[in-house]
Design a protein that fits this description.
The complex is a heterodimer of chains A (474) and B (363). Chain A has 474 residues and is α/β, with parallel strands linked by helices. Chain A has 15 helices and ten strands. The longest helix of chain A is centred in the middle third of the chain and has 54 residues. Chain B is globular, with a radius of gyration of 24 Å. The chains are: A alpha/beta (474), B mainly alpha (363).
Chain lengths: 474, 363
Amino acid sequence: MAKILDNLLPSTAQRAVKLRQSYDWIKTELSELDAVYEAKKQKALDSFIVKANKKLAPLAYVACDKAEYADSIMEKKLQEYDVNKYLSYRAANHKAAKAIFKAINAGEDWSGALDVMKGEVEKIRSDRAAFVGKLRLKREALIAKGGASDPTEYNAMRTKLEAERDDLSKALDEKYEAVIAKKRAALEAKLEKISGQIEDNKARSAKIGNLPDDVLLSVKGLKMYFGGLKAVDDLTFDVKKGEIFGLIGPNGAGKTTVFNCITRFYDATGGEMYFENKYGEVVDLRNYKVHDIILQGISRTFQNIELVKEVSVMENLLVAGTRAYRSGLVVHALGLPLLKKEEKLMRQKAMRVLKFMGLESYANWLAFGLPYGILKKVEIARALMADARLIIMDEPAAGLNDSETAELTETIRRIRDEFGVTILLVEHDMGLVMNVCDTVCAISFGQMLAIGTTEEIQKNKAVQEAYLGVEEDE
Amino acid sequence: MNKFLSDKYAIPRNNPTKSDKLTNGLLALFKSPVAQILLFTVIMGVIGQLSMEKILPYSWTSAFATTFSYAIAAVGFCLLMGYSGLASLGTGGFIGIGTYSVYYIMAESGLPFLLAVLVAILVAVVIGAIVGFISLRIEGIYLVILTLGLSEILRNLYMVLEDKISFTKSPVILGITITRQLALYVVLVFLAVVMIITSNIINSPTGRAMLAMKNSTAAAQAMGISLMKYRLLAFIICTVYASISGTLLMLVVRNAMASQGTGFYALITSLNILAAVIIGGYKSIWGAVFGSFIMYGLQTVVLNNIKFLAENPVIITFVSGILVIIVVMFYPGGLAQLVLELRVKAKGLRTKMREAKYGKDLG
C-alpha cells in the first residue's frame, strides 16, 4: 500500500524527477534556440521578397527586352494549348483505333477507318498551326505596344531593394542576436538555478558510491537465474566513457539477458550495476523501474524492430520524447497552446535527429511498409531522441546487407563523436564488432571468457574455442 | 523563395484573390477535428429540432438521443481498445455507475444535475482506477473475462440496491427543465465535448504513448512510458465516459431495470458497444459514433419503416450479427477502413473512366 501511495503522491523523489525534467527541457530549448530564430528570420525575409517582387514587377516590364518578353509569354501559352489539346488528341486516337479494330474483327475493309483517323489527326495539326499563327500576330502586337526597353529605373529600384533586404537581414540579425543573447542568458540562469537545486538534492540523497573517473557503467558480479538455468553468472565488466563496447558470444550466451538486466526488464538475481547518469550522479540502476531508466540517460534499440507501425516516422521519434514533455494530461486533453509550443520544439529536435540519420525525407511516412534497413535506422534515431548518455544496441546489424552494415559502422562512429554518447552493443557480425568496437567482452554460457581490445580477443584461445569448438589432440 | 525577379522580364503572377483566400481558409478550418465535430453536432441538433416539429418522423429525437448517449461510451471504448490495446466487456456495468450515482445523489441530497454528474464522474474514476490496476497483471482474454465478471457483480449490486429506478421529475440545467425531448441537446453537448477531448488526447503525446504501449510494451517501457500510468488512464477515461453515457441515458429513457436482461447494465450493452466499435473501426472516433448509430439508431430510423422488419424485430439482431461477421472478415479496420478504401477506389475509377475515353496514357 505504501508503495502505491508513493506512486500517487508527489514525493521528494518525484520532485527530483520534475526538477531534472525541467533541466532537460531547458537544455533542449537552448539547443534549439538558434534554429527557432533562424526560421523566424527566414520568414521575415521571405515576406519582404514577396513585397519587393510586387513593386518590381511593373518596372521589370519596362526594363525587359520586349521581344524576349513576348517570346516567353507565347511559349507559355503554346504549352498550355498543347496540354489542353493533348487529351482530345488522345481521345481521337483512341476512338479511331477502336474503329479500326472493330473493322478488322468484323473482317471488313479498315482503310476507311484509317482515313478517318488520319483526317482527325490532320485536323488537330491544322488547328495547332492556326493557333501558332494567331500567337505570332499577338507577339508582334505585344512587341509594338511595349516600346523600347529602359532598364535604368528597374536597376535603380532593384539596387535599392537589395540594399533594403541586406539592411533588414542585418537588423533582424542584430535584433535576434540581442533577443537570443537575452533568452540564452535567462535560460542559462534558470539552468544554473535548477542545477544548483539538483546539486542540493544530490547532497541530501545518500551517497551511493563512486566510480573511477573514466567509467560510465560498472557491472559487478551480475547474476540472472531463470529457475535452475544460469543465464548470466557472475559477470563483471566496466564500460568507459566515450567508448564503443561490444558484447559477443555464441547463441544463448546470455548477451541479451545482460542488456535486459541493465535496462531493468529483468530483475537481476544478484550483483550490482552502477551508472553515472546525465546529471553526473552515480546511481544504482537496481533502484529504478524499467520506464525510469531512460531518465537516467540509458536508451536502447531492439533486436526485432519495435516501432509503432501505424504512425509516421516523426511521431515514432516523438514517442521517445514522451517523458520530455512537461505538460500534463489536462493540457493534452484541452489542446492548450502550451502543448503546441512544446510540440513545435520537439518536432524541430526530431527533425534534427532525422537529418543526422539521413532520414528527413521519410519524416511523414508511415512506419508501416518501410524497408527493413530504414526501420533499423529509425530505431537508432529514436534512441538518439532521448538525450541518452549510454545507448544500448541489440544486434543493430541483424538482417542488414553488406553495404548497409558498412554504413551502420560509419553511423555508430558518428553517433559516438557528434552526440558524445557511449555505445554498448551486442552483435553477431564479427566484421562490424572488430571494425567499430574499442573494447570487446566475450561471454559464453553467462560467464566471462575474455575482455580486451579487438586484437586481444581475436588471439584469445578461450574465445576461439567457444566459437569454433575445442581442438582435440590425437 | 528568397530571390528577386529575374532580370529579363516580369513574370505574370497568379496572386490569390480574396475569395480564393476565403475558400482556402474555410477548407483549412474544416480540416481541424474540432470544427468537424462542432459542425456534426450542429447538424444533428437541427435534425433533432426538425423531428421535434414533426417535419421529420417524431421518433427520431429519442432514437438519436439514445444513439449518441451510447456513442459516448463507444468513444471511450475506442480509446481503450484501439489506442491502448486493452479489451473490456464491462461497459454495461460502468454505464450503471453513472445512472445510480446520479439517481441517488439527486434523490438523497437534491444536488443540481450537473453537480451530480460530476460526482458520478468521480465515482467512475475510482472504479476505473481499480480495473486499470488489475489490468497491469492480467491481459487479453483473461482481462475480458474479468471485466465481464466485474460488470455482473456491479449489476447484481444494482439489483440489490434498487432494482427499478426512474426519474420522475425532470432535472433542471441552467434554469431550463430538461424534458425527454430536450435531452437530445444535452446529449449532443456532452458528445461534442467528449469527442473533442478524445481527439485532442489521440493527437497528443498521451495518445502516442498509448499507441506505443499497444504496439509493444517492451519498447514503450524502454522509451519511458509507464504501463501503470497509461493503462490506468485508459480505463479511467473509458469508465468515466461510460458513466456519463449512463447518466444521459437516464435523462433520455427515464427508467431502468437492473434485473432485465436487455437493460442498460446487462451484458448485451457491453457486447453492443463492442460491436459498434468493431463495425465503425476501432481506431476512429467517428467510426465509434457511426457504429453506435447502426447498433442503436438504425432500427428506429430506417428498419422500422420496412414493414417486414417492423413485424419481426428479431431479424434486426441477426442483421447486426451478420454485419459484425462481414466487417471482421473483410474490413478488419471497420467502416473507417471502408471509407478510406472507397476513396482510393474512387480515384482508381476516375483514372479508369479517363482511360475508357482517351485510351491508355502511354507517356
